[in-house]
Amino acid sequence: MHRRLMLVLAALPCATVRASVVDRPLIAAAASLQPALEEAAPLIGAQTGTAPRFTYGASGNLARQIAQGAPFEMLLAADEISIQKISEAGQTRDAGHVFALGRLALFAPRGSALDPAAGLEALRPLLAAGRVRRFAIANPETAPYGRAAEQALLSLELWEALRLRLVFGENIAQAAQFAMTEGASGGLVAYSLALSPALKVRGSYSLVPANLHEPLGHHLVLTRRASDAAARLQAWFLSPKAAAVFARHGLEKP
User: Fold this and answer.
1) Tens digit of pLDDT for each residue in 176-204?
2) Helix pair 240-248, 34-48: axis angle to 10 deg
3) How many CB atoms lie within 10 A of CB 225?
4) Which 3 state secondary structure label does DSSP give 201?
5) Which CATH superfamily is domain 104-207 in?
6) Residue 157: strand pairing partners
7) Domain map of the chain by residue range?
8) Dihedral class, residue 216 (left if φ above 0, else alpha if ψ from -120 to 50, else beta)
9) 4-63 pLDDT, tens digit each
10) Architecture of 2-101+215-248 per CATH?
């Protein structure tokens, strides 16, 4: 009996390790979501019993990694196109769900000649006077906020005049870093990042009219690798509690 009890006790640490691994799903998330997810992490742990590990990047790049076999259990994308691509590749459980709506913001660092309060049109006289050296946006080919930035600039016929002065971030978080650097006039960033302490202390921003670009609908989907823990996470991300967290970071309820 004593020997049997010792064998059972010896097996318990291994079982604990396996449970902790199962309850730590790997999640791919758009870089625009990082401030909200950092706030949400302790709530997620308390309310779902999971401690997700997040990898941030451009939605298009994350979708490509999933299509190539990356072990993500869920994709939180800043668009629907990225979800559709991995769904068509047979890498998802369903077609996904929209969970938030993002906004594009015009940001300028302190000391810049650009006044965000005057809107994107304020770029026009600065460009004519040669006072715009660098202007940051995310890569339109992989980042939804980059596509929205390109669309907004094209809508106002500013793209060609600005094109040679553009610096492209691999994702929207990197674009925000570029927009804060010395010598940059500013950039187009996610509203959720413009609200973050890192940007608020470095400059000012204004919202870009939503009618200048396609809606920034944030979608999520479970991949074929999704565990029960990831399924619990999906339910939380679609809940009113999650919507309240996202709203504090400028991500509206769809």
Assistant:
1) 999 999 899 999 999 999 999 999 999 99
2) 150
3) 17
4) coil
5) Periplasmic binding protein-like II (3.40.190.10)
6) none
7) 2-101+215-248, 104-207
8) beta
9) 433 333 333 333 333 343 479 999 999 999 999 999 999 999 999 999 999 999 999 999
10) 3-Layer(aba) Sandwich (3.40)
Following CA atoms 56, 57, 63, 69 in sequence, which dihedral angle do they give, to the nearest 10 degrees?
-60
CA dist 134 and 69 (Å) reads: 37
Query: Is the separation of the CB atoms in 219 and 97 below 8 Å?
Result: yes
* Alpha-carbon gap, residue 225 to 35, rounded angstroms: 26
Fold agreement (2-101+215-248, 104-207): yes
Rg of the chain on CA atoms, in Å: 21
pTM of the model: 0.90
